[in-house]
């Protein structure tokens, strides 16, 4: 795990005067290129690591910074423990246990109570209430494939229920909006694709390894695109579904409308996902305008009702 490796590298740099990239790469069983990326991440976190070239060169923490062994503040340690503890609810493995133990080893006795208090102030539990039981074992399989550069094969259910067999070079596990995804190079499509784990079946790690290709992380920020596509529709809801509607908009979008009802300016995109959201509110929600969306809702409700006529 990268967090584990970063913390370990920091500890090594604190204990040693200087260490080379190849030595670190051999120690963690990764490429020197990965070590250079890790050093960049450590520098971005505010710990100044400099690189010395030539014979006897390598990486070292700047001496004036290294004099103070208290690298992490109370807030730093609290944040690290909070993040690692949240991962433990969904990502398993000895590396996470070791990372937690190493971070806790930085805690001075006189600050332990303050740090424990801060860590317990926020609880992040990424495990689902209910859902697909295969997600957790799939995460472990993908983690192993990522570490060993091994191909993955699985059956994938795409839009409209279409199933295809895929063989993929794995590059990144992604947790986005409570859903897990695999970013990988699909040999069927000859391109990078983002695969949702809940749509996978029969996930297998293959014996065949692959040589990693140049890779860019997927752009997961769709806020600007969604804002362009989104429009506001007017719906009337019963107060009994107000808590659920608030998952998609804010209190400012509500205005009272008689006894126990509200008019809501609701963010909407004309696609299957958003029509399904409106239908999920059942008879506690009525689309008032625009007219064409109201008529489309009427058609969909009629189609559902026709399933039960016989």
Automatic annotation (TrEMBL):
Domain HTH deoR-type: 2-61
Protein's UniProt keywords contain Transmembrane helix: no
A single GO molecular function term of this UniProt record: DNA binding
InterPro entries cross-referenced by the UniProt entry: CBASS_pafABC_assoc_protein, DeoR_HTH, HTH_11, PafC-like, WCX_dom, WH-like_DNA-bd_sf, WH_DNA-bd_sf, WYL_dom
Keyword set, alphabetical order: DNA-binding, Transcription, Transcription regulation
Acyltransferase listed as a keyword: no
Family matches, as PANTHER family: PROTEIN PAFC, PTHR34580
Protein name: Putative DNA-binding transcriptional regulator YafY
Lineage: Bacteria, Bacillati, Bacillota, Clostridia, Lachnospirales
């Amino acid at each position: 795990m990268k967090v584990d490796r970063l913390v370990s590298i920091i500890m090594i740099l604190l204990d040693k005067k200087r260490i080379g990239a190849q030595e670190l790469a051999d120690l963690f069983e990764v490429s020197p290129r990965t070590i250079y990326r890790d050093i960049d991440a450590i520098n971005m976190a505010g710990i100044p690591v400099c690189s010395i070239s030539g014979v006897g060169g390598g990486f070292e923490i700047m001496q004036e910074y290294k004099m103070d062994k208290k690298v992490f503040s109370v807030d730093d340690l609290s944040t690290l423990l909070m993040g690692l503890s949240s991962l433990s609810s969904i990502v398993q493995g000895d590396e996470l246990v070791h990372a937690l133990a190493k971070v806790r080893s930085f805690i001075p006795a006189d600050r332990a109570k303050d740090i424990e208090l801060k860590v317990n102030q926020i609880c992040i539990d990424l495990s689902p209430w209910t859902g697909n039981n295969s997600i957790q074992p799939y995460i472990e399989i993908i983690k192993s494939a990522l570490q060993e550069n091994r191909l993955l094969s699985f059956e994938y259910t795409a839009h409209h229920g279409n199933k295809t067999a895929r063989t993929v070079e794995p590059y990144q596990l992604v947790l986005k909006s409570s859903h897990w995804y695999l970013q990988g190079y699909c040999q069927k499509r000859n391109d990078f694709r983002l695969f949702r784990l809940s749509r996978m079946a029969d996930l297998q790690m293959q014996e065949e390894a692959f040589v990693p290709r140049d890779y860019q992380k997927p752009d997961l920020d769709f806020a600007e695109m969604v804002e362009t596509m989104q429009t506001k529709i007017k719906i009337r809801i019963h107060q009994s579904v107000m808590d659920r509607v608030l998952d998609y908009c804010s209190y400012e979008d509500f205005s009272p409308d008689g006894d126990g009802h509200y008019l809501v300016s609701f963010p909407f995109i004309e696609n299957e996902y958003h029509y399904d959201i409106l239908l999920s509110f059942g008879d506690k929600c009525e689309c008032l305008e625009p007219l064409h969306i109201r008529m489309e809702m009427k058609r969909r409700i009629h189609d559902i009702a026709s399933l039960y006529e016989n």
